TrEMBL record:
Keyword Nucleotide-binding in annotation: no
SMART domains the record matches: Bgal_small_N
Alphabetized GO MF terms: hydrolase activity
UniProt key word Hydrolase: yes
Domain Beta galactosidase small chain/: 748-1002
Its EC number(s): 3.2.1.23
Protein name (record): Beta-galactosidase
Entry keywords, A to Z: Glycosidase, Hydrolase
Annotated catalysed reactions: Hydrolysis of terminal non-reducing beta-D-galactose residues in beta-D-galactosides
Amino acid sequence: MDPRPLNTPLMDLRPWESPELTSWRRLPMHAVDRGAGALSLDDDHWRFQLLPAPEVPPSENWRQLKVPGAWTTQDTGDLPQYTNWRMPWPDIPPHSPTANPTGVHERDVDIPADWAGRRVILHVGAATSVLIAEVNGRAVGIGKDSHLASEFDITDAVRTGEANTVRLTVVKWSDASHIEDQDHWWHGGITRPVLLYATDPLHLADVKVSAPADGRLCVEVQVRHAGGTLPAGWRVSGHLDGFGVLTPDEEYAAWCVQEDRVSDFLGEARLLATVPDVRRWSAETPELYGLDIRLHRPDGSVADTSRHRVGFRTVEIVGNDLLVNGERVFIRGVNRHDFHPLTGRTVTPEEMRADLETIKRFGFNAVRTSHYPNDPALLDLADELGLYLVDEADIECHDHAHEIADDPRYLGAFVDRVSRMVLRDKNHACVIVWSLGNESDYGANHDAAAGWLRRYDPTRPLQYEGAAKTGWSGADIASDILCPMYASLDEITAHAASGEQNKPLILCEYSHAMGNSNGTLADHWAAIETTPGLQGGFIWEFWDHGILQRLATGRPAGPFASGAYAHGVAADGYRWAYGGDFGDVPNDGAFCADGLVFPDRTPKPAMYEHREIAAPVRLTRSDPGRPPRVTNAQHFRDVSWLTAEWRLSVEDGGTRTAPAVLPDLPPGASADLPLPHGLLAELPAAGAAGGGEAWLTLQVTTRHDEPWAPRGTEVCAPQIQVRERPAPAPPTSVSVVASVVAASVAVSAHSPDVDAEGLLRHPLLTCPPALSLWRAPTDNDLLGGAADHWRALGLDRLVREPVSVDRADGRVRVRSAYPTGAGPVEHQQVFRLLNDDGLLIEETAVLPEGLTDAARVGTVFETVAGLNHLQWYGQGPWETYPDRRTGGPVGHHRARVDSLFTPYLRPQESGGRSGVRRFALLSDTGTGLGVRLDAPRQVSVTRYRAADLATASHHDELTPRPRCVVHLDAAHRGLGTASCGPDTLPRYRLGPGTYRWSWVLRPL
């Protein structure tokens, strides 16, 4: 243990308040592979102590800490804090608060004896936010940038063959924090791997690979020597798997001599190859070639090597189109943070693979590394699995945006962060666009970084959302792509039709996934796929950033609490924490719970919506007399990697399957897909037993194991309707709704059991059917203003006022009024018993003119206890809503009632199913109740009343009721994305007027 204080001269510099100081003695970033032979320092045996400020000297009180790992998740007393864009303290840039947690990490390491005479490098993968490195009490360097590695040459500080002490001091708050003001948790610590490696004094300093789609490979190599001067006679060689030895570029070498570009301390060489019949890389066909680069000493022996994987592909912009290998590709993207519910932002390669496999399985082909360079392992995986990346620099000065964007003190930091990202990631085929950062206004510092980037890498476009602040059609230095965030559908389509568009439009953020959200996603993609100039976007975002919290202590569960969650739900004694749950002030609450997956990577229902929207195989049928038409919607791949099966679902029948043989379809092609003989011919006649409407689904799965999915994984399930529900018969004298009651069923002469107040008494119901106009507000409802509107109208606290109860001819007509802030809502229910023990209920609700934008119009009732199973014919099996229903095929579905509810981190309206025609609620023995609806309706069955959900902030506050709470909605408001972005479209909103619906309730 080294009891000495932090290196005094370095501390006198106050590097945590010096934006001009981006590093000290840090080595240049490079793309040389240093994994082989490296000595990992990752384990849970680091000595650690947390100081209240960087000026405070360490004490003798040490504890153990896991590295990599944020100390804020390891019970150190300093807890995570969540803010969206506000800085956690009021000090203006570049200052930091006086109370500034500072973690001292220390451990001993034995340096191998055979490293003597070699160059020894300390690599720290990432540290938040200022890293001060010492070895054996000697300062070896300083680094900033919480999401890129710092490397230091420690050769002169180490003793080979014996133990050495490495001390890494991390200052949490700094001038750099002001440009790392991203929308995620604030942590402190070392969050990526720490390692040591050794090289020969003569070593590869960098390798830059250019591999366009035409197969002309160019490798630029830089060479240095630890002693400074390069020895005469060194050379480099290369070998490409499947091709052979690369050729030295003698013409380039001669040009260097001619232009006096030969240096005695920086060696430069080029290697060339032209690969015939090159296999091109794309997100659909991620073809990679292995490349070995060797550095030879003057005697020919190998001094250094670097292994790379090369993808041949070309990215360019032509007009308003972004092209990959000459093809205009749709960007079906998602924003992704490095996140884990136990460690904060430390993620293993295995966990990153699981992230990207999930992303691929749900139809995404692109990731924006919001809002910083992700862990290097993620780029390796994106190359391998096939994902386009927008690689984003670690720059966001959201709270002080315009001040910092033009502040010359931060000029070096902007250029440093962009350039180091590019230097690290330049050889990855997956990177198709560079990003200068996020939400930092637009200033001279951006232009400076863009200038460096354009000079160094002219092979890729760059983007920056803030560059369009003066207009979408203006010329600017900092963005080749128009990449707005949360623009409305009307805005983007109007711009594409304006004649003023001058670059591709790809939304850097859209369809904010907070809670029950992502409404109108299908509407967006219907426009994108049919509007020239629109090319896609990146949904915000992949993760719900819920940190697992122990309820007993109120602290993070920590890195060793695996197994304390499953299927999106925290185990008893835990909960998913969001802003404010750790006592953090200021905070932005549940705004961090805005992902497409729960904190344990369980997909939310919106993922299935996207999967179907992005389906590689499309199915249409415009002529009932012809076979369905199938289209390959991919850009580069045929459909031979897929297999399919027909699934025919009949409302009053069952589900039948038959094999489907996909035709040989190149990208973009269409063909007829004949149906198996007799599949539709066997359909019973409409109205006959087993008749009713019918839907044909093409279930498409992987034919073989894919790198991102095993054989048999469902890829999409396009569906067409092959028979509509029979049209209602003409009304009879008793006005029975034929679409609800079979023609053979007559109205009983007996009267239903309705009390004097007009309330139905039924042995299967514990709360009678009542009018419902409100839902437990979603996050979109709360932040978008709809919830306030409903409260102002009193929709959350409706009181029924009986008006009349009329009994005649076995029919009971009940009229009621529900006062609201816009006037009374008139509600009528007509009850009739049927001879088959069913009860027909016909309902009408009249919303007054002032009652605009209601949450729902429908019926709510509660059943007896013990009904644990739901079977239904409609959309499913997962949750769907009127403006998010493309991913729910119509069919016969079944589920346990307890599984129907979706556990969004903040309880809210959830669990609905769209297009339900009929359902049955059953006990474990098969008894229960059945409901048949007059038309496809929105239905939800859960254990919670809307008020239960609305008054809870976390799921540990909810107690499931033994009964089922059932909503039958004649109409239900869409979800939209108003928590951050546009609300739902007008056609998914509910206005004043008359609503009619009917249903039959019968015991089973």
